[in-house]
Every structure is written in structure tokens, then in C-alpha cells.
Amino acid sequence: MEDSILISVPGFSQLSFRKKGSGPVLLLLHGFPEDGRLWDEVAPQLQENFTVIVPDLPGSGGSALPDSTLTVEKMAEAILAILKHEGISQAVIAGHSMGGYAALAFADRYPEMLKGLSLVHSTGTADTEEKKEQRRKSAALIRKEGGKEAFVKQMVPGLFASLFQQRYPAAVGKQIDRANEQNAESLASFQEAMALRPDRTHVIKESKVPVGWMLGKDDTTIPLEKVIGQVSQSETSFLHIYTDCGHMAMLEAPQKLSKDLLNFAAYCYNR
Ligand code: MLT
């Protein structure tokens, strides 16, 4: 993207991110199979109050896969490299789904750099054995000729609530097209990285900073009932449940999500 900043640091031949606005830092991490553009309807509403940094996680958008195996810990290292490059010592991080897994890895490793953690349709738990097996199969399919397109076509619509799918087929189609822009090796590597991630519910329990949960009532990827028990585990937490919303509040409920992120980040910096 034309307004992206590109950097090259040890371990990462190319990392791409966008930085806009001014004030304290709010970093927005996209999920799978997306890139930083996922936040396009939300970021502009946060930029008046915050310096908003939106990376493409390694392997997506303008960021290359890392030099070694992709893991959520590598994603955290990429975030660290971007913050260091910009001379930033602390940030509120909001991570959508896989971006939340990366944010939790960051919180685990570099807690002193975190002012607040928002988990947007995400969870601290690891995959079940069944889910890990499903991801291995998905990675194998994606690496086959035509497999990426088949996987994306089957997977992406289910990220949205069924009413949204019916009402906004073009918005769903746009996400399918964007997912297909990613290379197969990246999509397969993301699946494997997610399967490898450990349980990080201890990060939520031990968090010294507020944890803001943004969840969708109709989310079938991260079902509400599977995460709701984690919400009360940290010292300070906020919970927003979006009705008529699946796994994609940035597109299904962008106004509400923007307002809630704005209030959450302001609370983190002002408490
Ligand atoms: C995502 O939205 O980032 C992924 O679908 C999350 C997952 O597969 O666990």
C-alpha cells in the first residue's frame, strides 16, 4: 500500500505497517486470512486521539514471511521490531483473533511495553487436538494446486453472521478476494503457527493492564460461550458483546467497535 512504511530487520526481510494520527500509541493487529486493511473502517476513527499503527503480520500484505518458521512468538517479535523502529516504549494493543494470539505472545514476552490488551474475537486458550488436526489438513489443502482458493471460498463467508452474509454479499466477496491475494505458503504457515501456539490463559490471569474483550454473539469461529469464562480472570476487564455480529466486528459493527476501542485505550492511558 502506498502509505505503508517498509522496514527490514534481523529475522524479517520485509515488514510493512501504516502509522497515522498522533498521541499515545494504539496498535491494531489483524487476524487470518487478512492483512492490515481489515482495520480500514476503524483506524480513521481512532487517529484523532491516538497514534494508530497497523502492521501487516509477517507473511501477509506487504510483510514477507520471517526467515525462520512462522509462530505467534515470531509475530510478537515483528511487533517489537516495529515499535523499536518507531522509538515507542509502550502501546495499547488490540488483536483480532489470530492477531489476539500474537498480542498475547507479546504480552507474555514484553509485559513492560503493554498499556492495555484488547482481544477482539480472540481467546487465550490453545487449539484442541481436533482443531490442530483440522489445521494440518487445511495447510496441506492450501499448498495444493487450486487448494488456496477452495479453502478461502469455504472459510471466509463463515466468519460473518448469516444475516450479514445475506445483506452484504459484496463485503464478504471483498474479503474472499483479499484472502486470495495472499500467497498459499503464507496462509498454510498461519494455520501451522496457530496450531503450534500454547495456552496463554495465564497471561490473562496475571495481566497488570486492563483486558478489553470484544466478542460477537453469532461468532462461530470463537464462540462466545467458549471465551466468556476468561473474561472475569484478570484484575481489570471490560466486556463488549456485539449482537447480530459474527467474527468480524471491524466490518460488521465498525462504529461500535471504534467507540469501544477508543474508550478502552483512553482508560488504559488515563487510569
Ligand atoms: C482468525 O480469524 O484470525 C482465525 O480464524 C482464528 C482461528 O482460526 O483460530
SSE layout:
Layout: E1 5-9, E2 12-20, E3 25-29, H1 43-46, E4 51-56, H2 72-85, E5 91-96, H3 98-109, E6 114-120, H4 129-142, H5 147-155, H6 162-167, H7 169-181, H8 184-196, H9 201-205, E7 211-216, H10 224-231, E8 237-242, H11 249-252, H12 254-270
Helix pairs in contact: 2-3, 4-5, 4-8
Bound molecules: D-malate (MLT).
D-malate binds at residues 31-32, 97-98, 194, 221, 247.
Major beta sheet, specifics? 8 strands, mixed
Q: List SSEs in N-to-C order.
A: EEEHEHEHEHHHHHHEHEHH
What is the residue-mean pLDDT, rounded to a whole number?
98
**How many distinct helices?**
12
Secondary structural class = alpha/beta
Description:
With 271 residues, the chain is an alpha/beta fold. Helix content is 44%, strand content 18%. It is built from twelve helices and eight strands. Strands 1-2-4-3-5-6-7-8 form an eight-stranded mixed sheet, sandwiched between helices. Helix 2 crosses helix 3 (98-109), helix 4 (129-142) crosses helix 5 and helix 4 packs antiparallel against helix 8 (184-196). It starts with a strand and ends with a helix. The protein binds D-malate. D-malate is lined by residues 31-32, 97-98, 194, 221, 247. The site of D-malate (MLT) has 7 residues, from loops.
